[in-house]
Specification:
The chain is an alpha/beta fold. It contains ten helices and six strands; from the N terminus they run βαβαβαβααααβαβαα. The chain has a single domain, classed as Alpha/Beta hydrolase fold, catalytic domain (Rossmann fold). About 40% of the residues lie in helices and about 15% in strands. Strands 2-1-3-4-5-6 form a six-stranded parallel beta sheet, sandwiched between helices.
Length: about 240
């Protein structure tokens, strides 16, 4: 069975997929990673660069004996996936860049990286997790998947939040997009508050073999907001 590797984003973890990819489990051997400092590996020392996370994922997959795989990266995980496409490209069959972009620090970001660090230190991980997780859903705290998502985010220690912010602040892939040669699906919810259309359009129009899927009425967590549509679109693309 073909292996499908899922890489979560900032303040995420492998548990964020629980109950949302069951329809894909019968079609693919799913490997959902937990990056160092996040999710089930929250106790480990985090990494402060996107490239460093990509190298860690490669080593992790080698330790599991994974030789060829499809790859999906969500949000910060989509940045890591772009690096993986360049560093481990001969082993990646197809690529899904989900709710992500090619620039670590977005123009017009809602607050600076330093402000995000300061607020996290003042408010603490739990409050920060709920504040940020709410922005990932169209209906914020009222969304069905919010509590599960916020609970996973709350597992992230402050040191990992800071490391993730540092990793994104120093990263850009604009100059490398044309080197991503895998058949790629750029996947986005049209109400995403984190990544604007300009970032999605850049991926879609610059990666040579890119297709686009836009899901209406969703924000940053399409897999939790419209899981059936999420799985149908992924299945169609990967097959």
């Amino acid at each position: 069975m073909t292996q499908l590797v899922l890489v979560h984003g900032f303040m995420g973890g492998s548990a964020q997929w629980d109950g949302y990819v069951d329809g894909l489990a019968g079609q693919f051997d799913i490997i959902a990673v937990d990056l160092p400092g996040f999710g089930k590996r929250a106790h480990l020392q985090p990494i402060d660069s996107i490239g460093g996370y990509a190298d860690w994922v490669i080593q992790h997959l080698r330790s599991l004996g994974v030789d060829r795989y499809h790859l999906l990266g969500h949000s910060m995980g989509g940045m890591i996936a772009q690096e993986l496409a360049l560093r481990d490209g001969e082993r990646i069959d197809q690529l899904v860049l989900y709710a992500t972009g090619a620039i670590g620090v977005l123009p017009g970001r809602f607050e600076t990286i330093e402000d995000s660090k300061r607020r996290a230190a003042e408010d603490g991980p739990a409050a920060t997790a709920r504040r940020i997780a709410a922005t990932w859903f169209l209906h914020r705290e009222a969304a069905d998947g919010f509590e599960q998502c916020a609970a996973i985010a709350a597992e992230t220690p402050l040191v990992s939040m800071n490391a993730g912010l540092d990793a994104m602040s120093s990263w850009s892939a604009e100059q490398n997009l044309e080197r991503i040669l895998q058949k790629t699906l750029v996947f986005w919810g049209d109400c995403d508050r984190t990544y604007p259309w300009s970032q999605i359009e850049m991926l879609w129009k610059t990666i040579p073999s890119a297709s686009l899927a836009v899901v209406p009425g969703c924000a940053h967590a399409v897999h939790a907001e419209k899981p059936d549509m999420f799985q149908r679109l992924l299945s169609d693309f990967l097959h």
